[in-house]
Design goal:
The protein is built from 6 helices and no strands. By secondary structure, it is mostly helical.
């Protein structure tokens, strides 16, 4: 058990919440946890309290492309180069190639589903 949350309920916690509870269960002070995550001790205490609230649900996976992937595919279809995309998104051309590749992968998965 992590904190006051049963193991079967772990999937309803966000990664940050799981990490904070894990550190708290190791006996690390709230102020040290807050410093580690660049939050205030009061924020960490609220976060810990919220993990025990009833009715929490995990965020469902949303099918489809992310907005950035939709834009990259649309602009690539219009002939915009990776260099131009990189300048628009303030990323590298290699990053834009990876985004486009992931978008094609996600579209392929949608077609198979």
């Amino acid at each position: 058990m992590i904190g006051d949350v049963e193991m079967q309920d772990q999937n309803v916690l966000r990664p940050l919440e799981r990490a904070v509870l894990r550190l708290r269960d190791r006996g690390i002070a709230t102020s040290d946890i807050a410093r580690r995550f660049l939050r205030s001790p009061a924020h960490i205490e609220r976060l810990i309290a919220y993990t025990g609230l009833p009715g929490r649900q995990a965020v469902p996976h949303r099918p489809g492309l992310r907005p950035v992937e939709r834009r990259v595919l649309a602009w690539r279809a219009e002939g915009v180069s990776y260099q131009e995309l990189a300048e628009r998104f303030k990323r590298s051309p290699e990053h834009m190639r990876r985004v486009e590749g992931m978008a094609h992968l996600r579209k392929g998965r949608q077609l198979l589903a």
